[in-house]
Write a sequence for this structure.
């Protein structure tokens, strides 16, 4: 049954190098009966207006075609819309697709057609939603946790607030996007410059202090740069919270949304 699908393509896919891959995806979707209106992201078009237009026209499932960056371009407003999200990764980076159990290319069409829908938590920072994480590097910022205590590195450190994101070298999820909590990790800086986990990390050289929380406030005495789903913002203070069961998204059988076990303790 066609559930009124609509497809949102990243503008990078207009490059000749993706022509065959896109054609294969469109053919496979047609065979599976999941055709629908198609639009393309562009610099001078509002992604929010495009998707809202799709919903107004009756779309119940919005399929994002591109890569993780395409998904992140629209995630800041998607939880407000009454839709299910599908994802067809075409090119790297597609670490989020790996966590959702979605293979790249036209094989992802079968995942969309199978419609194994999971309902995930969504983070919120100020008035912006995020799916993966908030990341602050080399900062003396602190986090007020559930209005109970304040935590931060004694010297400059790295702050990660995770909803969905990261796997260990063994392929186990670090954060749980279905438990109603955000995972806060704070690591002191060391001589070697740290790098943001690229969805698969080795054993850390820095000890990380971890806690779970539902609401918090990031504060700094000087302006700080933060990455929210990979997008950079700057400021002194940010309110952050978790919204349980806010996003419906299609996943594959091999999804990695929850750790096998966890030693992170909640703040209460």
């Amino acid at each position: 049954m066609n559930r009124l699908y609509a497809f949102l393509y990243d503008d990078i896919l207009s490059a000749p190098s993706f022509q065959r891959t896109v054609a294969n995806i469109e053919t496979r979707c047609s065979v599976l009966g999941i055709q629908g209106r198609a639009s393309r992201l562009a610099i001078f078009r509002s992604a929010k207006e495009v998707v809202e237009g799709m919903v107004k026209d009756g779309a119940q499932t919005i399929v994002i075609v591109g890569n993780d960056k395409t998904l992140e371009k629209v995630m800041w407003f998607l939880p407000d819309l009454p839709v299910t999200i599908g994802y067809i990764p075409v090119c790297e980076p597609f670490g989020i697709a790996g966590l959702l159990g979605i293979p790249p290319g036209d094989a992802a069409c079968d995942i969309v057609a199978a419609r194994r829908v999971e309902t995930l938590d969504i983070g919120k920072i100020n008035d912006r939603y995020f799916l993966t994480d908030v990341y602050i590097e080399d900062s003396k910022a602190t986090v007020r946790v559930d209005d109970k205590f304040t935590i931060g590195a004694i010297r400059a450190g790295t702050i990660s607030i995770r909803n969905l994101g990261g796997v260990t070298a063994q392929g186990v999820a670090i954060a749980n996007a279905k438990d109603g909590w955000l995972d806060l990790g704070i690591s002191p800086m060391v001589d070697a410059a740290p790098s943001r986990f690229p969805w698969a990390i080795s054993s850390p050289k820095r000890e990380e202090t971890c806690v779970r929380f539902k609401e918090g406030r990031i504060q700094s005495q000087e302006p700080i740069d933060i990455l929210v789903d990979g997008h950079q913002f700057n400021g002194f203070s940010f309110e952050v919270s978790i919204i349980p069961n806010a996003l419906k998204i299609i996943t594959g059988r091999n999804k990695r949304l929850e750790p096998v076990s966890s030693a992170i303790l909640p703040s209460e």
Observations:
- The chain has two domains: 5-114, 124-244.
